[in-house]
Amino acid sequence: ALAGEGTIHMPRLFSFLSSDNQGVEAYFHGQFLVVESGGGKGKKASLHFTYAFKPRRWYFVGLEHTNKHGLLGKGDSELRLYVDGSLHESRAFDFPRISKPLAFCCIGTNPPPTIAGLQRRRRQCPLFAEMGPIYIFREPIGPDRMSRLALRGGDILPTFGNGAGFPWKATNDHIKNMAEESFALNHEIGGSLHLLYHPSLLSGRFCPDASPSGSAGTHRRPAEVLGLVHVSPHVRPAESLWALAYGGPMALLPLTVSGVQMDTLEPALGELSLSLATASLSAPIFRIISLAIQHPGNNEELCRTCAPELLSRVLHYLLQASSKLGSGEKEGVTNEELVAAIVSLCQSQRNNHELKVQLFRTLLLDLKMWSSCNYGLQKKLLSSLADMVFTESICMRDANALQMLLDGCRRCYWAIREPDSIDNLPLTGTKRSLGEVNALIDELLVVIELLLGAVSSTAASDDVCSLIGFIVDCPQPNQVARLLHLIYRLIVQPNISRANMFAQSFISSGGVEALLVLLQREAKAGNNHILDNSANLSECDVVSNEGSDAKAMTGEGYYQDDESQLAEQHESIVHEDTEQEAAKTNGASFKMLGAKIGRKISNSENQLIKNLGGINFSITADNVRNNVYNVDKSDGIVVGIIRILGALVASGHLKFASSSSNPNLPDGLLTTVHDEGNTMSEDRVSLLLFALQKAFQAAPRRLMTANVYMALISAAINVSSADENLNLYDCGHRFEHIQLLLVLLRTLPYAPRSFQARAIQDILFLACSHPENRTTMTTIAEWPEWILEVLIYNHEKGSKKYVDGVSIGEIEDLVHNFLIIMLEHSMRQKDGWRDVEATIHCAEWLSLIGGSSTGDQRFR
């Protein structure tokens, strides 16, 4: 550039020159800013910055020169480039000494012909740009003040002296804060400011100096406009909508409505073409409002016109109109854009927190008006809420998002109709798919889990109380089962301190009593499926299972179809009576592979561990549509209770007492451990295991399933039933929570034969794999009554040779193998013959009188 080669024009940013053509200039060379300085004796310096400026956009450009004096008199000199308030570059730059004072300042255009400047005349070029306020300082002001100056923008005209700013004239808190911040900044930069020229002060061709010295009249240094320059004020449309009409930007809402009812003036659907046209305008108009709401004047208009309620009415109309008009490809895209526009509108309000909370409550958290939309649109809304949890946690907390989402879940995503349930069948004309409903519940619980993850320790107890109140009061089994699994995940999360916090909150808020209520409800329901009277299933939810039944009966292939059969059985349960359901629930689910004890568990059986009552958390779009992997079995609530109980016991929050005086209750009383270290037995808590046992006895066909078994046996050996790598046949598993194992053993006679066969087989393998397990099995009070009860009870049930795909001969073989192995172990111990005698006498007593499972004399 100094050589002067080439003919490229370089727009000038500014020039500060002395009378002998010495000074400093800044100009653009292409997209980059160049600073040149020329001093006496022909000394020159040039600096090229690397920040690429783009044409046709506004920039706040700041150049700051600092000179730090060293110990030996030589200092470090550097030049800093600020763009939009951010420091982008800092480069070493030595200014040549200028012999004479600067006498001329030219900004945004060329110097007059009498002062050529440092550039060659043929390459001189004006900036050809719109100019805002110009600040010239005597000394560096630093990055913080530079950033605040850029953030304030160019519209603010600084004022100095007493009474400047007038913050007390503000009409709201936002304008008051802006005035106070602007006054503080003016006070800080006033002593360093040398010259200030603001376009709003232009009078003809002259612009007065607005710096403290200029406004006080100490020095008069007015600026003059060179050449033919048109001066015009610019007002952004978004900032002037408040003056358009009453309501400001709300005046655009009629463009989204195709017609109104003449008597009530409520929005109504008009012609199809007109309705489609107005619906396509809705998303852009909401985005315009989201931009305009950032201006204080527009914000005041929205508050004055009760904007949240009005926007909610219009949005409700738009969503209903979209459902009636159908959801083609084009409309689907428009609807997703509408969701994005609503999210942008709620997030763009940064100045009025109360208004922002109202927008969240009326537009995003009210699921009732969104329930008429299709599955994809509701999923888009819930995923958007999940994305905003951490960035808008305070706003969502103040909007009571947790309770609003729970209430909306119960009213909109129901499986059993309630008086206040929302049914969109008359509006949409299509029945809801249960698989899609459950998938939406999963998405909603993700939002709730994130809300609980962001909650403080002080508010955690209130949120847990809300969850407990929901599971006790809600009659929807699909929602309660999923919420129990959510509570389980909160208790077993990796963050130990938060896991303990949620566990303590659950116990102190009556969580154990809530589990008792749920178990009583399950026991009263009996073997009848809770969803038998539901009219929620659509035709696509009824799937034929004839082919899978045949496939399940073939050898090792039965485990591969176990999960899908349980899902299909749930879907067909609405059309079958209790006996047919009982025959299909466990039919061929646990087809025995012979009397071989050491069988390996299959991969698909391991996948059962990942399910909570049929809830699969790796749901793809296809299997959601097919409703195979996201349907509820009838055991989800009991599985959730067992997992929560096992987690609380494993973490030490609940403990079992050593014995119980009441023979009708389980041997171990369940107690709670308080912070003081004292162990206090509570009657209701001690009944939890007993209630679980009675629930199994009341509904063995419905509750004693593969998922319940895996949850119960996992809790007994103190491993996580959600671990997909869990294999019961790995060595090393020990019976740690005997009371949970006793619940399984006491209820085993009532279970289906397939359940009995699997339990006996697994318990025998665990007993053989660890010597302590064998000792535990022979020392419990129920030995050998429980296994003899299984044998005798099967003979009393009837003469059917095959029940649930398992013959009575297979049960006999398993029981005999179990007794032989355990008694051989006893015979190796001292006085082992006593166990053999006790087994014989127990069998005689059970066959004549009856054990704890019958309570009266047996039929001979």
TrEMBL record:
Coiled coil: none annotated. It comes from the Eukaryota. Pfam families: DUF4704. Residues 216-525, 723-842 form the DUF4704 domain. InterPro entries: BEACH_Domain, ConA-like_dom_sf, NBEA/BDCP_DUF4704. PANTHER family: BEACH DOMAIN-CONTAINING PROTEIN C2, BEIGE/BEACH-RELATED. This is DUF4704 domain-containing protein. It comes from Aegilops tauschii subsp. strangulata (Goatgrass). The lineage of its organism: Eukaryota, Viridiplantae, Streptophyta, Embryophyta, Tracheophyta.
